[in-house]
Amino acid sequence: MNAEVRETRLRDGRRLSYAEYGSPHGTPVIHCHGAPSARVEGELLFDRTTLMELGVRLIVPDRPGMGRSDFQPGRRIVDWPNDVTELATALGLGDYAVLGESGGSPYALACGAITPSRVRGAAVVGGVAPFEAPGLTADLSAPLRLMFRLAKYAPPLLGLMFRLNLKLTRSMDERGAERMIASFPEPDRTLLRRPEIRNGFIGCFREACLNGTRGAVHDMRLIARPWGFDPAAITIPVSLWHGERDGNVPVAHGRYLASVIPSCRARFFADDAHLSVPLNHSREILAALSAKG
Predict the structure, then answer these.
(1) What are phi and psi of 216, to 5 degrees?
(2) pLDDT one-digit tens code per residue, 164-216
(3) For 125-192, what is the HEC assignment?
(4) How far apart are CA 230 and CA 109, in angstroms?
(5) DSSP character at residue 14
(6) Taking the CB of residue 175, how many other CB atoms lie within 10 A of it?
(7) pTM higher than 0.85, yes or no?
């Protein structure tokens, strides 16, 4: 879709960049991208035909310090709803839905918890649960568990890891790509063998670190620490979608969120993993958020 990069200036002077996909006058859905990722995730996960047929206006902002958004010193997850509200107001939106994918789930849920008067509904797709929940950290994949541990206790080392990964992606040949793909479970493995999906997946990481790794590292650190709000206090409707073969964020995270969010309606897919849920079920997810399904 190659969406144009747009930006707005927030009250504190920071630049918040974003991209829009789908119907310009459709039902607004603000997508909270994964971690580390950026606004280009909209191009990876959602196709124009689906968005246009459902009448969805998908808005994907870069979180502070990622993509083209300015870094915000000392930011917290609970600060994000204010940024989203300012963006929505600048775009002339009334209420809107929020969608959080993977590491974006705490941010989407924070919007529902803190600004319920503006958020008509939320969706969580392959989302992480709070790390203080018993036993959930141990269930993460080894690479993700290491990243979150470094984010929490040794952020400079995680920054170094991200910089090394950036170098690897720039010099990656087919053999290197196949080694990366082999670490994913099916059906994600098959999806990543499609060049447009593999390149889009890598592109999200590169864009997240466009202006350095500081923003991406801080984002991971916030997700690994207490979020600053209680998911059990969310009152807006929440739909949750999770693959039981998810090798990145195990299904135990989705089941925990479904058990503590009072308004949650959850769907679990026996044959899906982390990428395949949004890629294979985007129509259902978006239809639920736009109240047209």
Answers:
(1) -65, -40
(2) 999 988 888 788 788 889 889 999 999 999 999 999 999 999 999 999 999 99
(3) ECCCCCCCCCCHHHHCCHHHHHHHHHHHHCHHHHHHHHHHHHHHHHCCCHHHHHHHHHCCCCCHHHHH
(4) 9
(5) -
(6) 8
(7) yes
